[in-house]
Amino acid sequence: MAGGEGTSIPLLTPYKMGKFQLSHRVVLAPLERQRSFNNVPQPHAILYYSQRTTKGGFLISEATCVSDTALRHPHTPGIWTKEQVEAWKPIVDAVHAKGGVFFCQIWHVGRASTSDFQPNGQAPISSTDKPPKRMVSPSTGDITEFTPPRRLKTGEIPQIVNDFRIAARNAIEAGFDGVEIHGAHGFLLDQFMKDQINDRTDEYGGSLQNRCRFPLEVVEAVANEVGADKVGIRLSPFADYFSSGDSNPEALGLYMAESLNRYRILYCHMVEPRMLTVEEKCATPYSLLPMRRVFNGTFIAAGGYDREDGNRAIDTNYSDLVAYGRLFLANPDLPKRFELNAPLNKHNRATIYLPDPIIGYTDYPFLDFPTPDSET
Ligand SMILES: Cc1cc2nc3c(=O)[nH]c(=O)nc-3n(C[C@H](O)[C@H](O)[C@H](O)COP(=O)(O)O)c2cc1C
């Protein structure tokens, strides 16, 4: 196991996250892989997740849709049907068999969709009726024009809260140790929080408190359903992904961090201000430290981390855990590589979302560890 050979770098020190005894701090970030045909998790995910599992390691699943209106791609997994729940079970079992702690990231994309992916070709739902700006895919150059969304009526919001609640219950039934509510990256919850999107005039729009009402209702419902000790949330107050900017992201981040304390959830997972989108890094005077100081539970930082600044984040108590996306995607044995300070594989953009059970998925090479026999 990583960290088991004497001298330990900060990233490879143990950490107790609530009732979970983690053996190191290198977390698998949620990574959408688009290989769950018909929105049903596939057996090839067993190998993918177990490759990235270490005993006492913490893994967050790819974003998993809470309902049939939550989708934006053809092959993202869901967790609203019995078939999906059953299909997750062997994947979760495989992670548990290797001693990993596995949370399911539950997701609704809101307006970041098109009518092609919505039931009966209907408009996607959102806090607003304005679509995000057209998007050019960094990997394929494809242009997405978003369908203008339908603004949710005030009276419809409890139904969406309920979809998250049921998805959380289903995730626990599938065997997951807990859930991470996806409140980041310009998706539905973020569409309520951000003042550049939310143009509502009811109690879910206007003031910071009103804009955060819906995400906090989701947190409360999910925590009541499965237990706050099994709930985390991911937030990206500084990101502008899918035209999701806010005029005062630090105030938003602080307000959410403070409010989350009321529900005593397990962790808050925040994306670094330097990440403008999911992949682009930029210079910024901001940091996550004010939010880290305010939040009482476990704090996870993510976005653009390497071995060196991950170690620094732990060493300086900037964060309790660090989530790695692209590096963990390309290096299934990332904690081991960090331990040995070994060279890292680079991710291949072209194969990231290929709907293939192997290519760009489970074929990234492991380090070749010498066995005791081969050393003699
Ligand atoms: C292929 C890919 C898929 C991603 N899917 C998700 C996702 O499902 N949920 C999420 O919250 N973030 C997602 N992200 C963002 C990552 O979790 C992470 O925040 C981002 O890659 C920046 O971290 P990194 O620099 O360590 O890669 C994705 C990023 C990539 C590259």
UniProtKB/TrEMBL annotation:
<comment type="similarity">
    <text>Belongs to the NADH:flavin oxidoreductase/NADH oxidase family.</text>
</comment>
<feature type="domain" description="NADH:flavin oxidoreductase/NADH oxidase N-terminal">
    <location>
        <begin position="11"/>
        <end position="344"/>
    </location>
</feature>
<keyword id="KW-0521">NADP</keyword>
<keyword id="KW-0560">Oxidoreductase</keyword>
<dbReference type="Pfam" id="PF00724">
    <property type="entry name" value="Oxidored_FMN"/>
</dbReference>
<dbReference type="InterPro" id="IPR001155">
    <property type="entry name" value="OxRdtase_FMN_N"/>
</dbReference>
<dbReference type="InterPro" id="IPR045247">
    <property type="entry name" value="Oye-like"/>
</dbReference>
<keyword id="KW-0285">Flavoprotein</keyword>
<keyword id="KW-0288">FMN</keyword>
<protein>
    <recommendedName>
        <fullName>NADH:flavin oxidoreductase/NADH oxidase N-terminal domain-containing protein</fullName>
    </recommendedName>
</protein>
<feature type="region of interest" description="Disordered">
    <location>
        <begin position="115"/>
        <end position="149"/>
    </location>
</feature>
<feature type="compositionally biased region" description="Polar residues">
    <location>
        <begin position="115"/>
        <end position="129"/>
    </location>
</feature>
<dbReference type="GO" id="GO:0016491">
    <property type="term" value="F:oxidoreductase activity"/>
</dbReference>
<dbReference type="InterPro" id="IPR013785">
    <property type="entry name" value="Aldolase_TIM"/>
</dbReference>
<dbReference type="GO" id="GO:0010181">
    <property type="term" value="F:FMN binding"/>
</dbReference>
